[in-house]
Amino acid sequence: MAELQLTLRAARHLHLAAQGLLTRPRRQPQTTDILRTIQQMSLLQIDTINVVARSPYLVLFSRLGAYPSSWLDDALARGELMEYWAHEACFLPRSDFALVRHRMLAPHNMGWKYHQSWMDEHAAEIAALKAHIAENGPVRSADFVHPRKGQSGWWEWKPHKRHLEGLFTAGEVMVVERRNFHRVYDLTERVMPQWDDRRDALAQPQAEALMLENSARSLGIFRPQWLADYYRLRQPDLRALLAQWQEQEQVVPVNVEQLGEMWVHHSLQAELARAAEGKLNATHSAVLSPFDPVVWDRKRAEQFFNFTYRLECYTPAPKRQYGYFVLPLLHRGELVGRMDSKMHRSDGVLEIFALYLEEGVRVSQHLEKGLMQAINDFARWQGATRVTLGAVAEKLFLHQRHGWEIDADR
Description:
Helix content is 38%, strand content 19%.
């Protein structure tokens, strides 16, 4: 049995410390922080929705503060990062290539992400595409002519896009850069010339054991059933592994208020001592992405933060409860609400359609101040000079009717 007792508040603070979200950044971000932060999280999920800053850029902003979003693109182009299917489509350190290589070598196990029948049917075209890349260098799907409309009247996917996606999932090409967020592909053998599958590839059990270690470190504190989702693993029986980790002093069992037995990764040893004494305090207020690791596992977010979240962008507008692309709001260690907003880039305006607080969250001066500062920072980073408020949002910001101006030079 775990002897160390923690409050739920302290446990949340440990998790946010592991994720880099406990306190506001204490210095200006540097280019090296992109790789460091992704290593801390293990994975950075990719999503293309662009009503505000795209998700991977926003996840980094929540941790680093204002940084040039081009830094993420530059880190990919420099070869510090790679893309592959991990939690979902993710950026991950290129040094973790070995962790996911077994998935590339067995693409038929990747479900909807790979269609062997398509690859077989178009084998000659795909071979010609690879030869084209070998001779002419990296390509985008946009480099190829779009087909005509299909029988349904809708434009169909380019065959070359499907070819490249299949080659990507099979690990025969890699994404070497993004141009306007469009993938640029090159042959894996050219990107990783020193790699040898016979020498360097990890067997699936070995790779998945390392994935579970990464998950434990990046979560910081966890229930065993939370680990598998991080890299989308099938739920393993972790009793033997946890016993081994405990024997090796890689984890410490604790008993958490309301949640029972949990485990803390050894990298948080110093923070654990402060948390047990009630001295690990969260000061950060931040706008989060729906694909932030803190909330991407919806069951974990509900159990740990009592925060129920559902992405509604694919729900018909009349049936949406909160909005199209709703952003969770973090304040001093709690997920206190959510915000439906849109960035009007040409006008320099962040429009907040609605801002909802969670049940039981009391409006206070420090809550209003913290969220207003977080929203200001979020808006300014995207180039906004003004924030406008819908009627629902005005209920929180009582002293800022209809919106406010932003000091863009701050």
